[in-house]
Amino acid sequence: MPSIYLQTFGCQMNVADSNGLAHQAWSMGCTFTDAPESADILILNTCAIREKAEMRVYSRLGQLKALKRPESKLLVAGCLAEKDRAVMRRKAPQVDALLGPRDYQQFKALLAQWGVPTDLPPPQTPLHMPSSEDAPGEDAPLEYAHLRSLVSITRGCEKFCTYCIVPYTRGPLESIPPDDIEAQIRREIRCGAKEITLLGQNVNSYNFGGVDFAGLLRRLGRIDALERLTFLTSHPHDLTRDVVDALAEVPAIQPRLHLPVQSGSNDVLKAMARLYTIEEYLDKVAYFRERLPGWALTTDIICGFPTETEADFQATLSLVERGTFEYAFVFAFSPRSGTPAATMTPQVPQEERLRRLQAVSAAQNEQTRRFHERFIGETVSALVSGPSKKDPTRMAGKTGHNVTVVWPRTDAAAARSPVANLVIEQAQTWGLVGRVA
Ligand code: SF4
Known about the structure:
The strands form six sheets. This protein has a five-stranded parallel beta sheet, with helices on both faces. It has a five-stranded mixed β-barrel with strand order 16-17-18-20-19. The chain has helices at about 10-25, 50-65, 80-85, 90, 105-115, 140-145, 165-170, 180-190, 215-220, 240-250, 265-270, 280-290, 310-320, 350-375, 410-415; strands at about 5-10, 30, 40-45, 75-80, 95-100, 150, 155, 175, 195-200, 205-210, 210, 230, 255-260, 295-305, 325-330, 380-385, 395-400, 405-410, 420-425, 430-435. It is globular, with a radius of gyration of 22 Å. Strand 10 and strand 11 form a beta hairpin. About 40% of the residues are buried. It folds into three domains: about 5-115, Methylthiotransferase, N-terminal domain (Rossmann fold, 3-Layer(aba) Sandwich); about 140-375, pyruvate-formate lyase- activating enzyme; about 380-435, CATH 2.40.50. With about 425 residues, it is α/β, with parallel strands linked by helices. It starts with a strand and ends with a strand. Helices cover about 35% and strands about 20% of the residues. Residues about 135-140 have low confidence and may be disordered.
């Protein structure tokens, strides 16, 4: 049977897409390998969100050119395949086929074209895909990976934020039928999943046959065996009070909300075409805090967006310093060619973008550490990720607030349990240190 080497770059949407491609290939009898030199089919599922991500893909394509056997096939899938459709063949002639994120229904036909038989009975062995993601250090070891599962609920996005390439690469929004989502979740639970993450570029815009995101959460909350449910990502414009009410009603939903603010300045939000003002954002946060005290609010922030003045930056910094967020992913603006922001003027010089990034990150780190300190002396439950990458004498996991926690690796039986109850003894900016309760 043909063997496949599959490497994934980028976001969790890509990880979920790779799982889907792997499932299709497995259903045709393909096996998987982590050795590109021995694979019959090599697949890179790519990301185009930042220039650095693109460079990593092209550099990997260069390495694979030397590694792959002449008769092997090389497929580039994902956002870069869509964005560079016209130039990829010239830049990387070793590529045999391209499939953008909207083309995955053609994947089986492509495999058939490459000689994979289509008439075999379903495989008798479970799907076993070696981890070959862009940042393997972030992955859970295989024996823990099945505890977390990603389930896409939408594809594409039509918000057209001025800095973002996604609407051009992934196309317009499409919601997946609730029956299909529920069936996939039930399948994942049968395979051992303890935490399901619903994925979409903007899950709040979910709508299928009148079922909106709040309705979907309530429906999924009725699945008995579903222990932990969470979702990514929310667009503040589309987050309704009804969604917040649903979060409060469904016990399986984990106590965290990721709500990307991007900037504290209305002028910058307008330039980004984010469709909300900071007052509207904070109004939604106030309702969220009132209904769900104790939950973690996390966010994304872009520093040095074109046109961002010192006063705009100070508005963002002050938002962070006021303790609005428990955690933030802070980025320096990186222009994507083909997006309006790439040619907006004036652009903020790179060193100034970095200065602002460092100031916002330092302010947020202070808030995050204070948030973590609240857990000292408490007993928390953590979903195990496996032995700690930095210190294998410790186990690592994530709490319901998505905070990393490590604890001494004691006896083997306890180490194999998917969930650990821990007394927290220390708080750091990166997370918590505990001991088994
Ligand atoms: S909501 Fe904006 S940032 Fe998010 S995927 Fe859509 S266009 Fe991109």
